[in-house]
Structure formats: structure tokens, C-alpha cells
Amino acid sequence: MEDALKPLLKVEDLRKYFPVKKKKLFEKRRILKAVDGVSFEVYEGETLGLVGESGCGKTTLGRTILRLYKPTSGRIWFNGKDVTSLQGKELKEFRRNAQIIFQDPYASLNPRMKVKDIIEEPLIIHGFNREEREKIVDEIMVQVGLNPEHKFRYPHEFSGGQRQRISIGRTIALKPKLIVCDEPVSALDVSIQAQIINLLEELQDKFKLTYIFISHDLSVVRHISDRVAVMYLGKIVELAKKRDIYEQPHHPYTTALLSAIPIPDPEKERSRKRIILKGDLPSPINPPAGCKFHTRCFKAQPRCSKEEPQLIEIKPGHFVACFYPENV
User: Fold this and answer.
1) What pLDDT digit, counting tens, does each position of 5-36 carry?
2) 3 Cβ partners below 8 Å, 6+ apart?
3) Alpha helices for the chain (secondary structure H)
4) Which of 185, 179, 237, 197 has the alpha carbon at shortest distance from 52?
5) pLDDT value at 310 more than 90
6) C-alpha to C-alpha distance for 64 and 16, rounded to whole angstroms
7) pTM here?
8) Which residues are CB-neighbours of 269 under 8 A, at least 6 positions away?
9) Distance separating alpha carbons of residues 200 and 220, to the nearest angstrom
10) How far is CA 93 from the centre of its chain?
């Protein structure tokens, strides 16, 4: 697919740094490097899973791509157009084609707005007339599995899963090409998670949507993704097709993450070896020199603390940032 199509989204050396408030008057200014030199491509109609520990920069990366945060440096290309520095009407047009589903359906919906008004809001912003809006709202309610008669209710009258369906309805109202799904099922019960994942897949098939699916749940990512990118401390350390990542990971961090996925077979669960990473995730304010993972890596060598590995293609479509990759 990658060879036949041009990427819908292309990210080049993207960085997003945040200044940290000084604790003391004469303290040196500190910088939090949330996203620190990330490059990848997403192709039309595919789902790119983005995984990693909490605090690794997944959400910041997603929001920076959508220009909810202004990039510190780097380039973002959408449909062949540089959207890194867009302003005004051009930025508004870009956001019509690139939307986000937020993690918490309880916090992302205005409790004072009726469902009809929530879904209708982006349509009003982009100039749809009243007749068009009413028709689209009813269609979307059906598409996301809600009763159109309930459009005059408030968010508190719905369950968590139904609220997330409302959020998804608002997101697809403008028929975007790209949707960043920021842990859209992590706040839901497991039984409801499957329903929302199935809904996302149905909508993707129907509207030819492209997803960046952010999650820390590797089982969910395995189900929905075509390719998977693994993030650690603001950088992508491994990127490959789903099957390659899960069956033959090459980065030690990816191997450790996969070893933590529960296996439903008790015999296999008892016999397998779990990799426990030493230490805690370093602070993005003061990351380690060299490879950022070397302080916790079970394969670290002296070189790792001095040089930073680049994300290189070790076999077709499989990129790894490691001097001593696994299974090679």
C-alpha cells in the first residue's frame, strides 16, 4: 500500500517543547521535550497505532499534528500541503479535514449543550444552513448507533459508551479525512470498548477514514491497526506493520511492552518470560544522554550512553532506533 499511494499525512522531524515554570528566581530556564524529533507517514485509509507508556508524548504528538499545539520545529504535510504554519481560513479548512476524538467522554462534552447542539456546532462554524444541519445530525445519530429522537437530551442522560458515540458523531460531522483517536476507549468498560472499536471500523470502511489510534492498550491496538509506532520519551523507537511488531519486535522496549500483554491461556501465561524494566521513565525535562532508553535497557552497551541511534529501516517497512536490535 505504501508504495502505491502518496501519504495523506507526513511528519518530518517534529518537535514540541514546553517551557517549565521556574521554582526559584535565578534558576536556569528548563524545557520539557514532549515530542523530540518524530518522523513518519500515514497513508489514506489505514490505521496507524501509536503506543507507549503514559508520559511518552503520544497525546502531545496527536494534538501537535492537528495544530492544537503550535510545533516548536519540524514540518507537517497533509495531502501534499505544508500545514505547519497555517493561519486563519487555511487553518480552519485544514481542521475541517483533520479531527480528534478525545479520551474522556465525560469531560469532552459540554454538559449545558443538548446532543443536537454538540453535533451541530462544527457544522455551524463551517457555514452549513439550518436545513442541512438538521438532516446531517439525524443521519449521524443513526450512523453512531443512537436514536435520533434523543438528540434533545443532555450528555448526563447518557452512559459513558453513548457519550463517546456522541463525541464520535461530532468528529465525523464534517466528513474529515484524518481522525486522531486519543485513547477513545480507555475510560470505558471492557464490554463497551469492543462496541466502540467496531463502530470506528465500520465508519472507517464507510467514509474511507484514516486513523491515528493512540493507546497504551496493546491488545486494542493489535486489533484495529495496520501499522504500529512505538514511542518512548518523545521519540519513535520502532515502526512497522502490525504483524512484524507483534511477532518479531526488534527494539528492546517493544519486546518489554509485548511481554506484559496478558495471555488468556493459563499454561502459556505461566511458561512465558516477563521482561521487567528497571527504574522509572526518565523525566522529559532532563532526558538521558545518548539513547534515551539505555538507563532501563537490558541490552545497553557503553555506546548507548554516548550516541543517539537514528530510526533506520532494517528491513522493508520496518524501522528501528537501536544499535543492538533484537531478533536480527
Assistant:
1) 789 999 999 999 999 887 776 677 889 999 99
2) none
3) 58-65, 88-97, 115-125, 130-143, 160-172, 190-207, 218-224, 242-247, 252-259, 266-271
4) 237
5) yes
6) 7
7) 0.91
8) 262, 263
9) 12
10) 21
What's the pLDDT score for residue 106?
87
* Residue found under cell 484524518: 178
- Residue 267: is its pLDDT beyond 90? no
- Alpha-carbon distances of 142 from 26, 117, 326, rounded to whole Å: 59, 16, 47
Length of the chain: 328
Residues 311, 11: Cα–Cα separation, whole Å: 14
Cell 479548512 sits on residue: 93
Distance between CA atoms of residues 24 and 160, nearest Å: 43
Q: What is the pLDDT of residue 1?
A: 45
Tabulate helix, strand, coil % of the chain (nearest 5).
Answer: 35, 25, 45
Q: Are 301 and 323 in contact (CB under 8 A)?
A: yes
**What letter would DSSP give residue 303?**
G
Q: Residue 106 corresponds to which amino acid?
A: Y
- Cα distance between residue 157 and residue 256, in whole Å: 42
Give the integer Cα–Cα distance in Å for 261 and 71.
33
> In angstroms, rounded to a whole number, what is the distance separating the alpha carbons of residues 195 and 212?
19
Q: What is the pLDDT of residues 59-87, one digit of tens each?
A: 999 999 999 999 999 999 999 999 999 89
Q: What gap in Å lies between CA 242 and CA 226, rounded to an integer?
A: 6
